[in-house]
Write a structure and sequence with these properties.
Length: 82
């Protein structure tokens, strides 16, 4: 019989909540190539989403479409929830 255990990403997707602004619609996954990309020297202050990814030591964030577009456009996003 197959195990019913699921990995962390599946649990985060099933929560159906943006990890930045807590929206519940149009969820997507933002992915960085490697964690070292989050800590490159010579960068200005890190945006809130980078802090969240580095703190969790995860290469993915489950976020809403609006936050995803803001990240790729270089705009600020809402501060992450605590």
């Amino acid at each position: 019989m197959a195990s019913m255990k699921r990995n962390e990403l599946i649990h985060r997707l099933l929560a159906e909540c943006c990890e930045i602004c807590e929206a519940r619609t149009k969820l997507e996954v933002h992915h960085v190539r490697k964690l070292a990309d989050l800590n490159r020297p010579g960068r200005r202050d890190k945006p809130a989403w980078m802090h969240l990814m580095a703190m969790r030591r995860r290469k993915t964030l489950v976020i809403c479409r609006r936050c995803h577009e803001d990240i790729h456009a270089g705009r600020g996003t809402a501060p992450p929830r605590k």
